[in-house]
Write a structure and sequence with these properties.
Elements: H1 7-16, E1 23-27, E2 40-41, E3 51-52, E4 56-59, E5 69-76, E6 90-94, E7 106-109, E8 113-116, E9 119-122, E10 132-133, E11 144-146, H2 154-162, E12 167-171, E13 175-181, E14 185-186, E15 197-198, H3 201-211, E16 215-222, H4 226-237, E17 243-247, H5 258-264, E18 268-272, E19 276-277, E20 283-286, E21 292-296, H6 300-318, E22 330-334, E23 345-356, E24 359-364, H7 373-378, E25 381-385, E26 397-402
Parallel strand pairs: 5-6, 13-16, 13-17, 14-15, 17-21, 19-23, 22-24
Antiparallel strand pairs: 1-12, 2-11, 3-10, 4-6, 4-7, 5-9, 8-9, 18-20, 20-21, 22-26, 23-24, 23-25, 25-26
Helix pairs in contact: 3-6, 4-5
Length: 405
């Protein structure tokens, strides 16, 4: 019997096939979650001038000693700077964000003064530079604010906007097509009979793909005939998508037709069957025209876990995301004894049951059946068991993979 491909080798084959997609320019409001194709360069200095960090009075620190009485000669507000100069013995009323007037080198906050008409008494002495935000304190014109390969977050959009950047160069979204197979499948709400299975994979896999930045199209359900499967695969490959994702039909039973249909349509499979639980039947290949194909198992838990482990990193790699696209494992401790593992890498659905020294304590759920979605929905993490891992005791270190939330 041919040995199953290790998970790490399968993932490496997927990622090595990922070629960076082209770029496009989008407005800031459309850039959330996109990956930068070029760095964001500041087009202005911020703050553009020395400004006040507090409401109070702009003064010459040498004049604003304890109990000094200064003459208020004007006002500086955000967007309306004072046009004159702070002269000896004078002060200018100033508000947060307002430009510091010429001649002033400190701000006395409002709480440290007493105002009577045009006279203000200083109740705490000023010091040079106090409560002033210096010009360029955040960034200066020409500074690189965000690097290429960075996936944009809400706070990044605010940074780009403050740098006077209205449009961003981003990597084009990967176009993903989801193709389901199986005579037993019906859509939610269609009135399923006892022998039917309600289609669920496209919703979980599609959501993971969208969160990874992809545009997702539902390409329908194929019946279990070779002619229909080949016709569906042919149409999908000709549709202009970057990644075809199939669910179901990936094993070797009489009704598992996806692998031979892909091969017949010119897809060269680099991965077929891996040493993974759940998800052994996973497939990966490339068509003669360059479309990448990921064949997921039909069992919904297996499909979700494989999409998390393989499809999401592939989509990130296609977008050139600078953060390592491989799944990031985290340290944890076992909350229960575990038996030795076999030759397949195991991703067990598990719950976080406590914490020790800042490290989560995890316990696998009792039932690990790859068809049970309620178990997956209630799990907090996947507990990772390496191939041939020896028996382990409660309290020993382990690794976990966070689920998508």
């Amino acid at each position: 019997m041919k040995a199953l491909m290790p998970v790490e080798e399968a993932l490496q084959r997927l990622l090595s096939a990922a070629e960076l997609l082209g770029s496009e320019s989008v407005a800031l409001e459309a850039a959330d979650g996109r990956v930068l194709a070029a760095p964001v360069i500041a087009r202005r200095t911020t703050p553009g001038a020395d400004v006040s960090a507090m409401d109070g009075y702009a003064v010459r620190a040498g004049d604003a000693t304890l109990d000094a009485v200064l003459r208020v000669t004007g006002e500086s507000a955000a967007g309306r700077p004072f046009a004159g100069t702070v002269t000896p013995g004078s002060a200018v009323r100033i508000f947060t964000g307002a430009v510091m007037p010429e001649g002033a080198d400190a701000v006395v906050i409002q709480e440290d003064t007493k105002r009577e008409g045009d006279a203000v008494t200083v109740t705490e002495a000023a010091t040079i530079g106090r409560h002033i935000r210096r010009a360029g304190g955040d960034f200066a014109t020409g500074d690189t604010l965000l690097p290429a390969g960075h996936r944009l977050r809400a706070r990044d959009l605010a940074l780009a906007a403050s740098a006077d950047v209205a449009e961003l160069a981003v990597i084009r979204r990967p176009r993903v097509g989801l193709l389901s197979t199986g005579d037993e499948l019906v859509r939610p709400g269609a009135g399923a009979a006892a022998h039917n299975v309600i289609l669920s994979n496209i919703y979980s896999v599609g959501a993971l793909a969208r969160r990874a930045g992809a545009e997702v199209a539902d390409l329908g359900i194929l019946p279990d005939t070779m002619a229909a499967t080949q016709e569906g695969v042919h149409a999908a490959l000709a549709s202009g998508i970057d990644v075809l994702v199939t669910t179901g039909g990936a094993s070797v039973g009489d009704h598992d037709l996806v692998a031979p249909a892909l091969t017949a349509q010119g897809v060269e499979l680099a991965v077929h069957k891996i040493a993974l639980r759940p998800g052994k039947p996973l497939m990966f290949g490339r068509s003669s025209a360059g479309t990448l194909v990921v064949g997921l198992p039909g069992n919904p838990v297996s499909a979700h876990v494989c999409a998390l482990l393989f499809l999401v990193p592939l989509l990130r790699a296609l977008q050139g995301e600078a953060v390592a696209p491989k799944p990031a494992l985290k340290a944890a401790r076992l909350g229960v004894d575990l038996k030795a593992n076999d030759h397949r890498m195991d991703f067990m659905r598990a719950a976080i049951v406590g914490e020790e020294d800042g490290v989560p304590v995890v316990r696998p759920v009792p039932v690990q059946d790859s068809s049970m979605l309620r178990v997956l929905a209630r799990a907090d993490v996947l507990l990772v068991r390496p191939p041939n891992a020896p028996a382990a005791l409660a309290g020993e270190p382990c690794q976990i993979l966070p689920l998508e939330d």
